Amino acid sequence: MVHKMSLHIERVRVADVLPLVDEFGNEFLNRDYSLDVNKAYVAELAASFKDGEPDEPIVVVRDGDVFRIKAGNSRVRAMKELGTEECWAIIDDEDTEQAINETVVRTNTKKKYEAVEESRFVQQLAMFGDDDYVGRVSGIDAERAASIRRARTTVGDKATQLSLDQLCAVDEFDGFPEQQRKIVDAKDDYSWKSILDRLRREKREIVEREAFESEAARLRITLVEDRPDSLQYINNCEKPGDLIAKYNEASVRYEGIVGRLACAWNGVSVDFYGEPIDAVASKEAAEAAELRRQGELNDSALDSIDEDMLAWVRAMLGRESLKSDTKLRKMPRLLDAAHDAFHEQWYVKEALKFIPEGRGHMLNIPDFIIGYKSARRVNGQFGTLLASRKQLPEHSAQRIGNYVNWIQRHVDDGWKPSEEQREVIKLAKRKLSQAGKGE
After folding, report:
1. What global pTM score does this model have?
2. Please, where are the H alpha helices in 156-195?
3. What is the per-residue pLDDT across 395-404, written as a single tens digit (0 to 9) for each?
4. Domains of the chain in sequence order
């Protein structure tokens, strides 16, 4: 799109140079000068001017007795702060909002706009052309421009307060209003980006659950939410398309079969349960019940380890220190963990992220305790895996090994496990040794 332009340069009174306003009198395409970063930018501009005005003339359009700024809002503001009375200005006859908007977006290289400012300008471009046009002028591709346009329709007036990345994230979750709300309501970019992976898992879980429920309804297979303790676990189905095959496989030796929707980090699946109808299945059911009992005992012991280690940390830091910051000197092994690759493991990351990067730094105790609680082991399969006669799968061995190392950090710093707790730790180490993952 080409605009015919008629330009000339002349001296103008700075007092007569005003921001462009829309039909309602609101300033159009202007930075938010209440932001500290923009205040600092204006101050830097003012300091760079020779004789009170910039080397590069501002660009304005005539509006009766005054001039409206097409390019140079910050320069004009800097001159007014300096008390400059006159300056050189390029008078541009091309004064349409579209032409001015294009100029503002295209000159976003001299001083990068804040994320929300840039978003607002690009959104305004959408009023003048299609997605190809917006993408060409702003430098983003047409697909991203289309995503931003759809998100604007979804969030309405709130769009002006969201960055371009935030709007694209909103569009990514089209049809998932709860996840969209969390993105829109985030206080800053860090807030919504930090939960993006979790929101994607939530979306995936919803989609996969609905797919299993739809296929189960079509096949008239009963799905339940809670584990049916009176029935024997039979097999697992990871894909909706395999439901009928897994169900028929189970039907050979079991009756009263139901499926339970199971949600894990790697997705949704269905566990089938039923009542055994032959001696072999009955024996398997008894063995599974004993395995489940042993697994629950192991989990109880591991839970007590988590609780006792947290109580020990509280006691080490001292009650009085919980009301203020303190130095973490008494737990050097935990402090060292902040420097190790081990720090990245999911079940200790929350706890360790509140530990300072170096010895002697201050630690916010309330935040540390909250993080420590969040880091408590939540994988209920550890106990059953340790009770099983089977060798640990490689990925489980790694996670259990890291968890044992997490416990060892506390032992090295002085925490003493009970006899029951020592037994389950020994069991875990023995299983790790069998899996070839011993230290």
Report:
1. 0.51
2. 164-172, 177-184, 189-194
3. 788 878 878 8
4. 7-194 (3.90.1530.10), 203-276 (no CATH), 284-434 (no CATH)
